[in-house]
Amino acid sequence: MKRMIPFVLSVLSSVSFASAQKSNEATALLQQYVAIDTSNPPGDTRKTADFLTTIFRREGIPVTRYESAAGKSIVYARLKATVSPPAGKAIVLLHHMDVVPADRGRWRTDPFTPTIKTADRGAGPAGVSDDLWARGAFDMKGQGVAHILAFLELKRQGVPLARDVILLAEPDEEVGGAMGARWMIANHYAELDPEYVIDEGGVGSPDLFAPGKLVYGISVAEKKIVWLKVRAEGIAGHGSQPNDQNPNDRLVKALARLLEDRSPERLALRPNQIPALRPNQTPARRPNQRPVARGFQPSGPSIVDVMRANIGTFAQNKFTNAIQRSTIALTWFRSGVGEPPRINVIPSVAEAGLDCRVLPGTTK
Fold this sequence. Notes:
This protein has helices spanning 19-34, 46-58, 141-156, 181-188, 247-259, 264-267, 303-311, 318-324; strands at residues 63-69, 72-79, 90-96, 115-117, 131-133, 165-170, 194-198, 204-210, 213-216, 224-233, 237-238, 327-334, 345-346, 349-358. It is α+β, with helices and mostly antiparallel strands. The strands form 5 sheets. It has a 5-stranded mixed sheet. The chain has a 3-stranded antiparallel sheet with strand order 10-14-12. A two-stranded antiparallel sheet has the order 4-5. Strand 8 and strand 9 form a beta hairpin. Helix 1 crosses helix 3 (141-156).
């Protein structure tokens, strides 16, 4: 289920759209969809599952619902191929219904009250207009609505299908997918068994990958997720009398060591990409840079090498940075005594969270 392709336009080639009507339908569906709070945690998707089930049943499309855990609803709908035998296995349109939590204090509007920014009534950044602002509009209920409307139009217009088309809406993606896609694979793979999966990993953009070049991304592998909690312990005390056992000091120093070197040599190279070295040769490195692995023979181009060969020079943005190397992000600190924390108290414990995403093939 991990292979993804850009949206297969030929599937929809015979679908005609009344532009304004479909635009209004898409806007209305997205407004209703994002208004349902599916923040994860807790990631309760029962209301969104009710919403989608109603839409499909109204169109005469059978729906199957699975419950992977309490509050974790999964929606499954299928359009059968109109030729026999089918040209191949099914295409799955996959999106997740859960969203990451929103810091309401940092939003200009309520994150679960969809707001459309127009020229005379702003909601987003200056200069941005005709965009719908709400938690999940981008990740990924917006693409979910695109999947839903494509799926509905195939049914409404009786488009001949060379293979089955499945729409799958899952929970739990924002926390690893154990109760979503992974659960479906483990428990109901026979109902899926797809040839292609179209989800948020495959997108086309004229500038995201390379400046001024239309590129469609095809996912052939995924980074591994490594979530870490760093904990430092020490001796509590009064802020007026510092001591050398302050856990905050220990934590800051430890994090500085972890984050100090994010060079391509450390984060982008994998063992099979590192040139072979003579037995006693030490890799050249900058002062204070940790040594890279040694003694491995190259075994062909990496995924990143292939991307560069096809795309050329990458655009400079956070997306292309992330797809070329392993990344580490410091996402939270937790320390202090009391709520809000007392400024004159040294705590006995300090913690931080690290979100690490490592390139395919990385083992250590």
